[in-house]
Design goal:
The structure holds two protein chains of two kinds. Chain A is an all-alpha fold. Chain A is built from 14 helices and two strands; from the N terminus they run ααααββαααααααααα. Chain A has a two-stranded antiparallel sheet with strand order 1-2. Chain B has an eight-stranded mixed sheet with strand order 6-7-8-3-9-10-12-11, with helices on both faces. Chain B has a four-stranded antiparallel sheet with strand order 2-1-4-5, covered by helices on one side. Classes of the chains: A mainly alpha, B alpha/beta.
Amino acid sequence: MPDTVITYIIRRLVAAIGLLVIVSAVTFSIFYLVPRWAGATPETLATRYVGRAATEDTVKLTAERLGLYDPIAVQYWNWAKGVVVGAEYDYGAGVERCPAPCLGYSFITKQPVWPELLDRIPVTLSLAAGASVLWLALGVAIGVLSALRRGSIFDRAAMTVALAGVSLPIFFTGLISLAFFSYQLGWTVPGGTFVKITDNPIKWAQALTLPWITLAFLFSAQYARLTRAGMLETMNEDFIRTARAKGLPERTVVVQHGLRGALTPIVTIFGLDVGLLLGGAVLTEKTFSLPGLGKYAVDGIVANDLPKILGVTLVAAVFIVLANLIVDLLYAVVDPRVRAK
Amino acid sequence: MTEPNSFLEVRDLRTHFPTDDGLVKSVDGLSFSLDRGKTLGIVGESGSGKSVTSLSIMGLHKGGSARISGEVLLDGQDLVSSSAEEVRLLRGKRMAMIFQDPLSAMHPYYTVGHQIIEAYRVHNKVTKAVAKKHAIEMLDRVGIPQPDKRVDAYPHQFSGGMRQRAMIAMALSCDPDLLIADEPTTALDVTVQAQILDLIRDLQREFNSAVIIITHDLGVVAELADDIQVMYAGRAIEYGTAEDIFDRPQHPYTWGLLGSMPRIDRERTERLIPIKGTPPSLINVPSGCAFNPRCNYASLNEGASETERPELLDIGAGHKVACHLSPGQRQKIWETDIKPKL
């Protein structure tokens, strides 16, 4: 049994690498072809590195060194090679070594992309981790109570709030909560004060409290609705009647038999949501000025900074692919019927 | 209140469900009694109130929207007036139930052993290891091969017959005095049905429990039941020993059930005789006799069936029937009209 699980994981990881190659190739094509269609030449792209003031010769030389005259396939191959084994750039005055995984240099800051991403991943990770724990606990608890007291005042109130939560965008709830809790009441410090958990856990949590709550509000609304629907269905199943016929206390019936049965779709969606979020909670990070992957991506897009966009896309794809794999493995843990297949 | 003289006494049980369309009278005045070691068969079409009766006895309608009245005396204790918690403590311990479809009735995510252990440990303060040993014993007792291995299997890894055996093991794990089997063989292959019925009969002898078999299949009750109660629209319309019901049935509905039962000894060219019409809605039960609109003989009693509800009356030696026809009329119809066609 564990042997088949390991081969399964290896098979999935190989497939995942294939998928990442496709994702990166498509992204690469889009971001390197579209500018050319829009009239950009290798020279104008090279200008972004050397600046407008450079002479024509310098620009051409730079374009040559960066391989911008090469066909797209060769360019992609060089880029992919850089990701796997690292790359060396000869900029005339010397050779710049960019260690693997080399995702190129930002057009704007001239800094290598990978170390910048490494700086931002903890921010997004912290945001996603805290918010997901919060929304899972809150959403499932509210969903279960709503289902058990279907039609009650609690149920109606919770579902109304949940509807609002699903409908309201982050930049609305985020700004409202910032205005109220940070500026009006002064409970939290507004934006841009991310502290690593290893440096100061209390300040870390303080800075993230509001983003967590805002993000969790959006997601727990969705999870409450999902849990409620799942519980309503499961509590009507024959095996619930059997559990009651055995004389189990209602609490055990609800939690161990009902919730356990309703959990499968929640686990699935939870894994995918977290994977998606790790690729950058764009709106939340932007609203609260958190220097995470999402904000990095937006900054890259706004500045036409192709290496940045490509790097974030690749990292986000890795998170989603991994989340998918974990979900599939969890699925087998949650539902024994999946294991046989 | 009279003292109970049987192990299970049901007196004037009524289970009504208020709905937006009106009051659904699923069970409407049911009385019967059952002793230890005896088997009662409850027979009727879908919607006649058989399953609601069993769930009401088990207290599984408590706390819901159902309005339950009457008395259910289990060894003298009234379950209708007892609290939900008191009845819960009896469920699984003194009275247990097995269901129609053992696949959907077992939790797909837990092993068969876990589900039996759980049933045993609610009512017995024992360690998991002791309970597991007991679960293996129970699986062995219901005829599951290699019980020490199968105890760790999931329901979907069992065949239909094995699952029902496991359900029976679960129901009997606390040695209940009353076992209710709700259509226990309906979802099973014909070859397996007989095995399960044999198993229930053997275990009943071993445990000396009272058994209620609920079914629409007269073949099943013929196999197992000492007494048979025929239900129609939430009420008993005939009650008697198996011999009474099969050899001297008195109610036109019972005749209909017998006539629509396939029999191997009947000529193939002869057609089954279905009961005309459909069961009545339980919201608007016909006034008078509920079976009146579908009865071939209602015209013989000068309209009494349309206005007056017949009482369940003893016609001798515990054989009861609720019908306006006179004993003479019934005797004549049975002898000339019904019996020769069966």
